[in-house]
Amino acid sequence: MFYGSKIVGWGSALPDTVVTNADFEARLETNDAWITERTGIKERRFGGTTSSLAIEASQKALANAGLEPKDIDLLILSTTTPEQTIPATSATVQAELGLNCGAFDVNAACAGFVYAMVLANSMIATGVKRILVVGSDTLSRITDQEDRSTAVLFADGAGAVIMERTELQDNAFLGWDLGVDGSLVPILYCDHGGYMKMEGREVYKKAVLAMVASSKQALERAGIAASDVSLVVPHQANLRIIEAATNRLGIPIEKTAIVLDKTGNTSSGSIPLALVAAAEMGRLQNGDHVLFCGFGAGMTWAAAVIRWVV
Amino acid sequence: MDDAKAFEQFKECAVKVLGVSPDKVVMEANFAEDLDADSLDIVELVMELEDSFSIKVEESELEGVDTVGGAFNLVKGKIA
């Protein structure tokens, strides 16, 4: 490892159409109280495309960092809902942003954004100067809107960060952990052309256990105690999962970035959406330790610990 | 482990996870109706029981388990 990395810009994007729990109440056998109690979700956004949301989030991240497209040396797009089999959706995003650099997609389900950040950090370590890391998904396209067990959960959204090379002594990417238990594919999957199928209770259990174990591993590698974490930015799937996991980690829920009440589960978009919301609310100060933690189909999980640098 | 001791341990788990008073955790208690526990609360309880008793409970084994007695019998069968 020759260089460290830090986050220097961020942005997010949501489609305009708001779908509330009441909208589902009108056509499915469900209600606001049931959805809120079991998921924490009150409303979500449907619309846009994986590339259009990625482009909007990226443009905001560039503006936030005070950078031009020419300043970006690589684009990594995390998505589970690419627009075509080939090419990678990152190609469309690269062209629309006017980037002149390499670009590729990463699919690690709902843990994809953390995987993409770990990948970016590793490439920066060997010399790449700036990487645009984007998470964008349009899960409403692969969700059966007549299935009340999944329709209320999944939605559309995107977020992006720009990671920049630092000298090794200024490294702000402190530790990470990646994992998969592929024997659990049957509990959450989506076939080509089909809709997502999920064993909700089993996913809940595995998600809590994976979040806790992966977070502990990343914290240990970073040399950071759970009590020194200023903000947890978890995958925004279900408030109950987040509460159960942070409780086991001994981190108060108040130290957690939550946007799922307004966004639902946007897969790759969820962690950067929560990060950007926290940054915009002034919840991040220079030197704060931030714990990212994602989990999803596979089961796939990832955690990373960074120091927030402004 | 005798039944009474095992049930005390079971009760501790239920009180901790479900936030109910110990006297409500009786064999006849229905999770949904008497303990205000939904399906995710039951998953949480199972996770606590797995840790506490060092057992493993499969999702399929929870089919039809809707009372404290049903859950306790499931646990008892695994520690016997």
TrEMBL record, chain A:
It catalyses: malonyl-[ACP] + acetyl-CoA + H(+) = 3-oxobutanoyl-[ACP] + CO2 + CoA. Pathway: Lipid metabolism; fatty acid biosynthesis. One of its GO terms (biological process) is fatty acid biosynthetic process. Residues 219-308 form the Beta-ketoacyl-[acyl-carrier-protein] synthase III C-terminal domain. InterPro entries: ACP_syn_III_C (IPR013747), ACP_syn_III_N (IPR013751), FabH (IPR004655), Thiolase-like (IPR016039). Residues 236-240 are annotated as: ACP-binding. The active site is at C110, H235, N265. It comes from the Bacteria. GO terms for cellular component: cytoplasm. Its EC number is 2.3.1.180. Keywords: Acyltransferase, Cytoplasm, Fatty acid biosynthesis, Fatty acid metabolism, Lipid biosynthesis, Lipid metabolism, Multifunctional enzyme, Transferase. The keyword Lipid biosynthesis applies. Residues 104-182 form the Beta-ketoacyl-[acyl-carrier-protein] synthase III N-terminal domain. The keyword Cytoplasm applies. Its main location: cytoplasm. GO terms for molecular function: 3-oxoacyl-[acyl-carrier-protein] synthase activity; beta-ketoacyl-acyl-carrier-protein synthase III activity. It is found in: Cytoplasm. Belongs to the thiolase-like superfamily. FabH family. Catalyzes the condensation reaction of fatty acid synthesis by the addition to an acyl acceptor of two carbons from malonyl-ACP. Catalyzes the first condensation reaction which initiates fatty acid synthesis and may therefore play a role in governing the total rate of fatty acid production. Possesses both acetoacetyl-ACP synthase and acetyl transacylase activities. Its substrate specificity determines the biosynthesis of branched-chain and/or straight-chain of fatty acids. Homodimer. The last Arg residue of the ACP-binding site is essential for the weak association between ACP/AcpP and FabH. This is Beta-ketoacyl-[acyl-carrier-protein] synthase III. The lineage of its organism: Bacteria, Bacillati, Actinomycetota, Acidimicrobiia, Acidimicrobiales.
From TrEMBL, chain B:
Its main location: cytoplasm. It holds the Pfam family PP-binding. It is found in: Cytoplasm. Pathway: Lipid metabolism; fatty acid biosynthesis. GO terms for cellular component: cytosol; membrane. Residues 4-79 form the Carrier domain. The modification O-(pantetheine 4'-phosphoryl)serine is found at S39. GO terms for biological process: lipid A biosynthetic process. GO terms for molecular function: acyl binding; acyl carrier activity. 4'-phosphopantetheine is transferred from CoA to a specific serine of apo-ACP by AcpS. This modification is essential for activity because fatty acids are bound in thioester linkage to the sulfhydryl of the prosthetic group. 4'-phosphopantetheine is transferred from CoA to a specific serine of apo-ACP by acpS. It comes from the Bacteria. Keywords: Cytoplasm, Fatty acid biosynthesis, Fatty acid metabolism, Lipid biosynthesis, Lipid metabolism, Phosphopantetheine, Phosphoprotein. Carrier of the growing fatty acid chain in fatty acid biosynthesis. Belongs to the acyl carrier protein (ACP) family. This is Acyl carrier protein. It comes from Acidithrix ferrooxidans. The gene is acpP1.
